[in-house]
Amino acid sequence: MSFKEFLEKIKNVFISLYEKTVDYCRENKKQAIIIGSLILFILILLILLLIFAGKKPAKLPHVETKLELTETPLVPKGPEVQEDYSISRNPKDKWTEEEADKWFTIPSSNDIDSLGKTNDGIISEILGAAP
User: What does the domain layout of the chain look like in residue ranges?
Assistant: First the structure.
């Protein structure tokens, strides 16, 4: 198949498509007008979208300004740090018995039941009326 034959086949396809479209428009004028109007409306929307989406605000040039201190900076007044407050610490892998007694509280059965009911309420709220 040569290039000319290929072009001729494409030309014939478009001609037959054009003829079928014209025949359809003659037979169904209302539908043709509605379809044509919809296509025109979509094209106008696409053109407007391209126009407005293409306009981006111009970027302002970035000007670097070097700040030079004229006075020493003042640290704002704030609450004093308490003695037993540590800013940083080395984490331990395990608590000692004394720390466990001081910080850990064994939950009562009422606490566990209350937590279970709260969790069930949250779950039913999330699931709603899901099947």
Answer: 3-54, 97-126
Residue type, 82: Q
**Half-sphere exposure (Cβ direction) of 9: Cα atoms closer than 13 Å:** 6
What are the residues whose beta carbons fall under 8 Å from the beta carbon of 24, sequence distance 6 or more? 32
Q: How far apart are CA 77 and CA 80, in angstroms?
A: 9
In sequence order, the 6+-apart residues with CB closer than 8 A to the CB of 104 are 95
Cβ 104 vs Cβ 95: under 8 Å: yes
- Mean pLDDT for 113-131 is 89
Question: For residue 120, what pLDDT is reported?
Answer: 93
Are residues 32 and 25 in contact, defined by beta-carbon separation less than 8 angstroms?
Answer: yes
